[in-house]
Amino acid sequence: MTDSMLEQPFCVLFGGNSNDRTCGYPTAVTIYYVVIIFLNTHIITNIFIAQIIDKITFGLLNENAMVTPKNLLHFQNLWAQQEYDPSYTYKHVP
């Protein structure tokens, strides 16, 4: 970035060929690099978040990972048995 921001007397403003000029545009270079950094950060952040959402969605849509009302009733019945709940605080659901 600093090489693109060179100004006189540290650069060649006029040369025989247009490729021989080494002076830059400090304001344009600063704006360019700030825009590039923000765009790249935005893209990388979006890719990172997309991967997280993809993993969470896969876990939620997996049939074995879902808790159904049938599973909850089964758990309540097991918990209500005397060996799991000695004080028998939960109702036994038939």
TrEMBL record:
Transmembrane portions of the chain: 31-53
UniProt keyword list: Membrane, Transmembrane, Transmembrane helix
Superkingdom of the organism of origin: Eukaryota
Protein name in UniProt: Uncharacterized protein
Source species: Sphagnum troendelagicum
Lineage: Eukaryota, Viridiplantae, Streptophyta, Embryophyta, Bryophyta
